[in-house]
Amino acid sequence: MHEFNFLPWREQERARRKTDFLRLLGGAAFCALLLLYGNAYTLRQRLAAQELQHSALGQQLATLESPLSELRALREQHEILEQQLTALQTLQAQRASAALLLDALARALPPSAYYTALERQSDLLRLNGMASGNELTALMQALALVPGLGTPQLHDITTPRPTAQGAFALSLPLPEIPEETP
After folding, report:
1. Nearest CA among 139, 128, 119 for reference residue 166
2. What is 90-102 written as a DSSP string?
């Protein structure tokens, strides 16, 4: 029988398969590199677009910063003006209270009695004056009826005779009246 040598054919087939495999492997590596490069390119493009958008937003923010600072300054001025307006309204409301108090003190005073001293100490009004016993009683009753004033408290009374006029000292609790500053 003849012997056939199939080895060269097998080696040629093996070499062909090897080259086919290497070509496919090279093609796959080339495709992978192409995909990586394409992906990197698109990421760079997206990043550049984001940076462009970011710089445009930064420019818009810079143009809006000056109106915002003006708005903040206006708000601060508005708050200051509101505080001043509130203070002025409070002062306006209390402006006539001292005059009204003096008017009430004058109306409560009986005809022959008179005040010799009037002194305010924080929320207390001290009155000194001259009056007879009945007039002093009428004065204290009239002062107790004045709205906004508390009950008068008699501190001192000196009369030489019961029917004659004598010195008195009394105090009244006051509502809040702003003290005038020079």
Report:
1. 128
2. HHHHHHTHHHHHH
Q: Is residue 37 part of a domain?
A: yes
Handedness of CA 120, 126, 130, 136 (dihedral sign): positive
- Consecutive H or E run containing 3: none
150 within some domain: yes
Query: Domain limits at 19?
Result: 7-80
Structure tokens at 55: 């710089």
Question: What is the total count of domains within the chain?
Answer: 2
Element of type H or E holding 124:
strand 124-131
One-letter amino acid for residue 97 of the chain: S
Give the burial string for 66-102 (b: 16+ CB within 10 Å, else e).
Answer: eeeeeeeeeeeeeeeeeeeeeeeeeeeeeeeeeeebe
In a domain, 55, yes or no: yes
User: What are the tens digits of pLDDT across the range 46-67?
Assistant: 999 999 999 999 999 888 888 8
The answer to whether 144 and 135 are in contact (CB under 8 A) is no
CA distance 163 to 169: 18
Q: Which residue has the tokens 């306006």?
A: 92
Helix then strand then coil, % of the chain, to nearest 5: 60, 15, 20
> Looking at this protein, which amino acid is placed at residue 95?
R
Tell whether 110 and 163 lie within a shared domain.
yes
pTM, entire model? 0.48
